[in-house]
Specification:
Blueprint lengths: L3 E11 L10 E6 L2 E6 L5 E8 L3 E9 L6 E8 L5 E6 L7 H25 L5 H5 L33 E2 L15 E2 L3
Parallel strand pairs: 1-7
Antiparallel strand pairs: 1-4, 2-3, 2-5, 5-6, 8-9
Keywords: Membrane, Transmembrane, Transmembrane helix
Protein name: Excalibur calcium-binding domain-containing protein
InterPro entries: CarboxyPept-like_regulatory
């Protein structure tokens, strides 16, 4: 067969809405050469190509933002003048609602972990706990004093010592300025 010039025409469509997509770059790779065309406002593109056989294989590439890439091998023939339709699949984007849900779940999980860590956290060494008189049940928030853990509503005037060490959670509020020193003078 002699070399024949033929037109390869196609149209790019959205696979979901079937609407035409304009301004799309289409690349045709044939015999080691690449040709480029762009779709018009109706989604059509056209290549004017020289065929050196009755039928040849070529590769069509389509890339456009917001859609999945398209890459396919096609057969071109000088006797076939049909329009090649390419249906591009839109890329699904995360909705704002689902991202908000993830943020809320992460916040809840983070809070639960923080609370669990706080509940299981024991800042007192065995030496600090040993400072309390033996046999007495003392609140570990006050390692320099022995205050019963079930004592209610104590004030600085109810304890003999001033400027003593206070550790969280400070159930009696002796450390008002949160500097770790209770009943400061």
């Amino acid at each position: 067969m002699n070399n024949a010039t033929t037109y390869f025409t196609g149209r790019i469509l959205n696979s979901e809405t079937k609407t035409r997509i304009g301004g799309v770059k289409v690349t045709l790779d044939l015999d080691g050469k690449s040709e480029t065309a762009h779709t018009d406002s109706e989604g059509f593109y056209q290549f004017n190509i020289l065929l050196n056989a009755a039928q040849v294989s070529a590769r069509v590439h389509v890339e456009v933002e917001g859609y999945e890439k398209y890459n396919r091998i096609i057969t071109l023939s000088s006797s076939d003048n049909k329009i090649e339709e390419i249906h591009l699949t839109p890329i699904k984007k995360e909705s704002k609602v689902s991202l908000n849900r993830i943020g809320i779940i992460a916040s809840i999980v983070g809070t639960v972990i923080a609370v669990a860590t706080y509940i299981n956290f024991n800042p007192f060494t065995s030496q600090q706990q040993a400072q309390a008189p033996s046999g007495q049940n003392c609140d570990p928030a006050y390692p320099d004093l022995c205050i019963a853990p079930n004592s209610k509503n104590l004030k600085c005037s109810d304890v003999d010592k001033k400027n003593f060490k206070v550790l969280p959670p400070d159930p009696h509020g002796f450390d008002r300025d949160k500097n770790g020193i209770g009943c400061e003078k």
